[in-house]
Write a structure and sequence with these properties.
This protein is an alpha/beta fold. It is 38% helix and 23% strand.
């Protein structure tokens, strides 16, 4: 029995939750995949998978063995990779998820530079503001803003995003420009909601050591940054978001910052990826590249 191949097959079955799906991704007959796992269990004298008519799941022993297999296979891959030029020239598919504001305002304007540096990396950019499950959704790394929940993921700090309160010029002509947070009782906001964010309708402010929040009325709530910005540009109300996400709109006057003396606290930005003894060259390359962009941006200081 080829132990390494058996480990690879077992890991793929565990990830797919199905012998048939694993066989398809490996381009192997389903019978080969099934017999390989059976022989592995026989060799180890332990049951690794529970089988049902629709799905397979890991036994406690299988979960332990899966983690060890992944470490062994990653070590083998790293050893082989270190003997090639792939470290200097990263290659392969890289799935990265990020909020829409970062994708459109930071990553996209600099994407040509990434491909000039790493022409052999095939980027799969997932754009959403929800918290994804990296392991189950096959994501290599994610960019997240704000306080991190307790996690087994590795978090690489990228910097701080300075937040601003702003509105379109047309909105301010109609409602006036607020001079203090108390003036917001006569204004409206575009509300933002998500499973991890503050309650919709709440705007946060800081003035020296004083920190407080204000409830602001509004007619709509969204959970995607691109739509949040578009509604602000259309004059639906005030918003709060990272300054560098709307930097171009601010420079060209499409949006105007208000309440600059009461700016919200800066928000930390991290790149997260699963714990690995050796980071893949593609993930490492993207991490270094995005770190430069955030660090060099105008909004990375507190």
């Amino acid at each position: 029995m080829d132990r390494i191949q058996a480990m690879q097959i077992f890991v793929r079955v565990a990830k797919a939750g199905s012998f048939i799906q694993a066989a398809q991704t490996l381009s192997l007959p389903a019978s080969t995949v099934t017999s390989s796992v059976k022989n592995l269990e026989k060799h180890l004298q332990v049951r690794l998978l529970n089988r049902t008519t629709r799905r397979v799941s890991l036994t406690p022993e299988g979960s332990q063995y899966l983690a060890q297999c992944r470490e062994i296979l990653e070590l083998i891959e790293h050893t082989e990779t270190s003997l090639t030029n792939s470290v200097k020239r990263p290659q392969g598919r890289l799935r990265v998820d990020m909020p829409g504001g970062i994708a459109h305002s930071i990553v996209m304007p600099n994407l040509q530079d990434f491909y000039q540096r790493y022409p052999d990396v095939y980027l799969m950019i997932g754009v959403n503001d929800r918290q994804v499950d990296l392991v189950h959704e096959g994501v290599d790394c994610v960019i997240r803003m704000g306080k991190l929940d307790d996690s087994t993921l590795v978090a690489r700090p990228l910097g701080q995003f300075r937040w601003v309160t702003c509105a379109s010029a047309s909105y301010l002509r109609g409602y006036g420009t607020p001079q203090t947070p108390e003036d917001l009782s006569h204004h409206r906001a575009i509300h933002y909601f998500s499973g991890r964010s503050r309650q919709a309708g709440e705007m946060r402010f800081a003035h020296g050591s004083e920190k407080f929040s204000v409830q602001v009325n509004g007619a709509a709530a969204v959970n995607e940054t691109g739509l949040y910005i578009k509604m602000c540009l259309e004059g639906f109300g005030l918003v709060q978001l990272a300054e560098n996400v709307v930097a171009e709109h601010l420079r060209e006057g499409r949006l105007v910052e208000v309440l600059a003396d009461w700016r919200p606290d800066s928000v930390p930005v991290h790149l997260l990826y699963p714990h690995q003894r050796f980071l893949s060259p593609a993930v490492s390359a993207f991490a270094d590249w995005i770190s430069e962009l955030v660090r060099d941006g105008d909004s990375t200081t507190c």
